[in-house]
Every structure is written in structure tokens, then in C-alpha cells.
Amino acid sequence: MISKKIKDVMQSGSAIRAMFEEGKRLASIYGKENVYDFSLGNPSVPAPKAVNEAIVKIAQDTDTLALHGYMLNSGFESVRATIADNLNKRYGTKLNFKNIVMTVGAAGGLNVALKSIINEGDEVIVFAPYFGEYNNYVANVGGKVVVVPPNPPTFQPDLKAMKSLISKRTKAVIVNSPNNPTGVIYGEDTLKELGAILKEQSEKKGEAIYLISDEPYRELVYGNNQVPFLTKYYDNTIIGYSYSKSLSLPGERIGYLVIPDEAEDCDNLLAACGVATRILGFVNAPSLQQLVIGSCIDEKTDVSAYDKNRRLLYDALTEYGFECIEPQGAFYLFVKCPIEESKFVAKAKEYNILVVGGKSFACEGYVRIAYCVSYDMIERSLPYFKKLAEDTLK
Ligand code: PLP
């Protein structure tokens, strides 16, 4: 008999995964080219060629025992040093290898960070709309998610509301910018204020409230937008980074945590993350992929392809009358539903358009459109979005 906890997760399901499955079903009936599946954040830009070349070269050139053996739970020191140097160059930080813990993607990193700091019953504040998996990650460690309500139309975090939700059980706040599902980048002034509030509240509590910055979309930024580096605004920051989107490697499961020296209990926290990596069963991040990252540190994905998609979809949908905020980063468009959310999602499906309802992100009344798809598919979908607008915007 399976456990009650996992049964609950299975029953509540993932609307994103369910839509993805539905896309496959519809494609088998109507043909792939007649289904417009915008459900999943699976990068459509291939990983840079240099990544595959590095995989081959490392497999050929590295001593096999060193390549495939057990290692420190936090990962190869050389790779962590390369990452630290790269961050120092880009953001003027003073990190070294010991401030970096290699992780199994952002999901692995968040679970490791939470496992390292959360006691049973501790509270973790999140800003709606947010990536629904946070609920599971926090529940995994016996914590409780406390949700700051959405703040439309800008979707910048509502700091006044956050402050009012801080309690003596608050242990962490999670932010995600560029944001899934809105595409919004949190502004520097907002982050400075967030840092100031957390500093004041940590002092009041006599213990750090950690700021966990979930950053799989850090490199996916459009125009002149910048993503501030959060350790500059608040000492007790833990950054969770991933190469899933930035190098199109979601299946390879590779990322890292950054914990700066300034963070309270830094050395213990870093050691705890190593232990958490071990006891959660990861043991260490995949060794080959760590070395690949070490040798591809300056590689970048082709953001211009996502930007082209963004322009096409945003311009068309707003022209048809839909309301949405122009994304500054990531690869999602968050569109206001002109009718009740579930009816809108169902209506879209009648045209074989698959999108995910805002309810999955604790923000009912919207849909998320993942535009990390082919340009061609977006072009083909537009006449149906137009019909959808005509049907629902009256
Ligand atoms: N955090 C956010 C906001 C995401 O959108 C995702 C994946 O879509 C993740 C974390 C998990 O990323 P990873 O594949 O690196 O575990």
C-alpha cells in the first residue's frame, strides 16, 4: 500500500504534466501539426554544439575511475571553482569553490536547501503566482507554505503583504525571477527593500530568515533587462541555479547552489547541503555533467529564438484583445482569462490549444502559455487564438 502523502500528491496531480500527456493524445488523433501544445517549459532551442562535443571529449580523455567514481557530495572542486570565478567576473562577488554546491538541477538544489534549514512546522513564504512544485518541496521536509497573494498587473512581489505574513516560524522566503509563469523580472529597488525587510525581521527573530532565489531562467532575458544578483542585497541568500533552461539540458539534471560567506552559519550551512545531497539520495550531482559545465562555462543558449517567439505571440494576442504583461525574461506569457479559467482552458482545448491554468500557480483567472516551442507552431496557432478571442472576449 502506498503512503498517504504520495497518494495525496498523485491525486492532486500536476496540471502541467496532465496537459502535456493530453497533447500527446490529441496529436495521435489530429496529427502533431494540428495540436498547439504550450503546456511545458521544455526548451525548444537545442543545447549548444559545444556541450555535445564536451561530453565526447571528457568521456574520451578523462580517467574513467575519476570520471565515474564517487566524489565529494558537493561536487568536483575544480568545477565549483570555475563557476565561482565566472560569477565573480559577472557580478563582482567574492565567491570561491567552497561557496558552491553542485546539484541535481534547480529541483535538487531547492530540496537540498530546504532540507538543510527547515524544521518540522517551519514556514516558507512564496509569492503567487509561483511554480507549484514548491508545495511538494516544502512538504517533503515537513514545512508549511505561506502564500503572498498575487499583485497584478505588475506581478512584482507585494512586500507589504509579505511583511504581514512573517511569523516566528518563518524560516525562508522563495523568490523566482525571471518568473515562471509571468516572465516578470523583480526590480532592483524591490529586491533592496525585500532585503531590508528580511534583515530587520531576522534581527527581530534572532535567527536568519533565508532568502532562496530560484534562478533557472537567469540567462533568459530580453532587451536591456537585467537580473540583479541577490547576494548583493541580502546576506542570508541561497541561490539555486540550473542549466535546464540556460543550456537546454533539463534531462541531464545539473545545477548548483550558491551560499556566500556572509550568510549566517555559512560553513555549517554548506556542510549541511553536502549532507542533504547525500541523504536525499542524490549523493552527488551527475559527474559527467559537472565536468561538461566546467568546460562549457561561457556557452549560451540562443535567447533570440525565444525573443522572436515572445514578440510574435505577445503582439498577436494583445492585438486580438487579450490582456497580458509583456514578459521580460523566461519563456512564458501569463494571459488574463476573459471568462472563468477552467472554461477558458477547455475552450482553448477545443481548438487544440493547450495551456495551463493559473490555478496551478496559485493565481486563478489566468493561463500560462509556454512559448519555448517552434516559431512555426506559434504561427500556425494564431488563427485559433484569434477565434478563441472572438469566442471569449465579448
Ligand atoms: N523552478 C522553476 C521556477 C521552474 O520553472 C523549474 C522548471 O521548470 C524548476 C525550478 C526546476 O528546474 P530543474 O529542471 O532545473 O530542476
General description of the model:
- The protein is of the alpha/beta class and 394 residues long.
- It has two domains: 4-48 and 301-392, Aspartate Aminotransferase, domain 1, CATH 3.90.1150.10; 49-295, Type I PLP-dependent aspartate aminotransferase-like (Major domain) (Aspartate Aminotransferase, domain 2).
- Helix content is 44%, strand content 13%.
- It has 14 helices and twelve strands.
- The strands form three sheets. A seven-stranded mixed beta sheet has the order 2-8-7-6-5-3-4, with helices on both faces.
- Strand 5, helix 9 and strand 6 (210-215) form a beta-alpha-beta unit.
- The longest helix has 18 residues, at 188-205.
- The chain is globular.
- The N and C termini lie far apart (51 Å).
- The mean pLDDT is 96.
- The site of pyridoxal-5'-phosphate has 13 residues, from helix 6.
Number of domains: 2
Query: Over all CA atoms, what is the radius of gyration?
Result: 21 Å
* Sequence of strands across the biggest β-sheet: 2-8-7-6-5-3-4
Q: Which ranges are low-confidence, i.e. pLDDT below 50, for 5 or more consecutive residues?
A: none
CATH C-level class of the largest domain is Alpha Beta
Number of helices: 14
Strand content bin: 5-15%
Determine the fraction of residues in helical runs and give it as a percent range: 40-55%
Annotated CATH architecture of the largest domain: 3-Layer(aba) Sandwich
Which molecules are bound in this entry? pyridoxal-5'-phosphate
Q: Could you give the order of the helices and strands?
A: HHEHHHEHEHEHEHEEEHHHEHEEEH
| First-last Cα distance | 51 Å
CATH superfamily of the largest domain: Type I PLP-dependent aspartate aminotransferase-like (Major domain)
> What integer is the average pLDDT?
96
CATH topology of the largest domain: Aspartate Aminotransferase, domain 2
